[in-house]
Amino acid sequence: MGTPEFACAILEKLIDSDHEIVAVVTGADKPAGRRRVLTPTAVRNLAEQRGLPVLMPKSLKEDSLYQSLAALQADLFVVAAFRILPARLFELPRLGSINIHASLLPKYRGAAPINWAIINGETETGLTSFFLKQNVDTGDMILQTKVTIAPTDTYDSLHDRLADLAGPFTLETLSMIEKGKSHPIAQDDAVATPAPKIQPEDALIDFNQSSVRVANFIRGMATRPGAYTFFRGQKVKVHFAQSSDHISDSAAVPGSILSNRKTLLVQCHDSVAELTRVVPAGRKEMDGVSFLNGFRPQTGESFINQGKAE
């Protein structure tokens, strides 16, 4: 059960393993792009390419879905980047249902663990497999693997690294269950942290924070949904930034573009950030120097938090 590319990485390994996949469950086709063309999920595309039966329920509470899944008599459900399963579904399989989650639980429970780990300045994250229970991401843990978050990592790069690991990690988890060696461990709710779903409007950059926090925020949002600000009334997405050792201008308001033709420097709360990859409205991604050369910001001009996300 899954929807996006992250789940495909797991499905691919399962297909090529000795395990028998009796069905794939994914979301319904959704409108995508400017023309709002109905588009299947990444998981549906892969499943159909590999000749697997696909279920696309509108609601996970449908009696017809319950009956279809019960008829499969599956030993185990594998869930990754999907919706919240009702208990009567995840209790169906003989061996239970497991989830593959992109964090070191109990840290970052929720829909956006990769984003929030970077935004919060973590230097380590990973994957956790666990048995599903009623409350989201709270089940007993089977296996974990750790991954270092590099200062150059963005959501995209960390997502892809974790996805590459997720397939073999899932097979290792299944092997432990199959051999009776899983020995699940309860999570410590006292140290749990949230990772709520991120909406496009949540990606607005707040330059009233330190340059380190601003850079982490930008990296954690890149490139989906993409951190953004506004310049001369037009939206500008920022895909990468880093804290700079440039001397802070105490007279400049946060968001001010500092006078420098070699790097795109922006005043933050008490320090300076360098924006290195930006996407002005209607343009392709460019480096900071190209932005300076193309837009030639004047002394006193700023990136301003105005307008709304598209």
Lay out the secondary structure.
Elements: H1 5-15, E1 24-25, E2 30-32, E3 37-39, H2 42-49, E4 54-55, H3 63-72, E5 77-79, H4 87-90, E6 97-101, H5 113-119, E7 124-131, E8 141-148, H6 155-178, H7 211-221, E9 227-231, E10 234-244, E11 265-267, E12 272-280, E13 286-287, H8 288-295
Parallel strand pairs: 1-4, 5-6
Antiparallel strand pairs: 2-3, 6-7, 7-8, 9-10, 10-12, 11-12, 12-13
Labels describing this entry:
310 residues, Rossmann fold, five-stranded antiparallel β-sheet, Methionyl-tRNA Fmet Formyltransferase, Chain A, domain 2, four-stranded mixed β-sheet, alpha+beta, single chain, 21% strand
How would you describe what is shown here?
By secondary structure, the chain is an alpha+beta fold. It folds into two domains: 5-191, Rossmann fold, CATH 3.40.50.170; 200-295, Methionyl-tRNA Fmet Formyltransferase, Chain A, domain 2 (Roll), CATH 3.10.25.10. The chain contains eight helices and 13 strands. The strands form four sheets. Strands 9, 10, 11, 12 and 13 form a five-stranded antiparallel beta sheet that branches. Strands 5-6-7-8 form a four-stranded mixed beta sheet. A two-stranded parallel ribbon has the order 1-4. A hairpin with a 5-residue loop joins β12 (272-280) and β13.
> Approximately how much helix is present in the residues?
25-40%
Largest sheet: 5 strands, antiparallel
According to CATH, the fold-level topology of the largest domain is Rossmann fold
The rounded distance between the terminal residues' Cα atoms is 31 Å
